[in-house]
Automatic annotation (TrEMBL):
It comes from the Eukaryota. Pfam families: Ras (PF00071). The lineage of its organism: Eukaryota, Viridiplantae, Streptophyta, Embryophyta, Tracheophyta. This is Rab5. Belongs to the small GTPase superfamily. Rab family. It comes from Stephania yunnanensis.
Amino acid sequence: RNKNINAKLVLLGDVGAGKSSLVLRFVKGQFVDFQESTIGAAFFSQTLAVNDATIKFEIWDTAGQERYHSLAPMYYRGAAAAVVVYDTTNQASFACAKKWVTELQEQGNTNIVMALAGNKSDLLDSRKVTAEEAQVYAQENGLFFMETSAKTAQNVNEIFHEIAKRLPRA
Ligand code: GTP
Ligand code: MG
């Protein structure tokens, strides 16, 4: 028995963390070195088959620039899943990710599936946030954590696949 599930998914995180790059990798299998900063938000959709179900992700890629922060609730309201993205080479972006998690915990869907993505894992020499500290934070806050690279594609399909597996089946 195959179920078709539509799932609204939102990406949140600091400017330049790699939200759009992760979506571009997931949806189109592409990466660009000079991805333009998102204005407002961008919409994508992508379908994934997991076990007994076909999940159609309706993806809102939000803008990390502070002036767009007030728009975010429009995109996370009613979302079944959220990917909170930080840049592993930037401590401030990890702090920003924690703020997004807190906002989602306070104002998001009660049953939202939350993933924490430590992106740019390919930049080994510039790492500022350890996988251990992010894993501890994620565990304490009920998220699952993966380090990703939109550039090399490491864990990009995997993180969306893991979300799909965790979505409640109607
Ligand atoms: P806003 O739209 O401004 O909020 O930023 P964003 O989170 O969408 O970041 P974006 O995807 O635009 O990426 C910012 C920059 O980081 C771009 O120049 C990307 O090429 C680069 N980038 C994104 N992901 C990776 C990655 O995994 N590895 C490396 N090396 N660079 C990346
Ligand atoms: Mg963007």
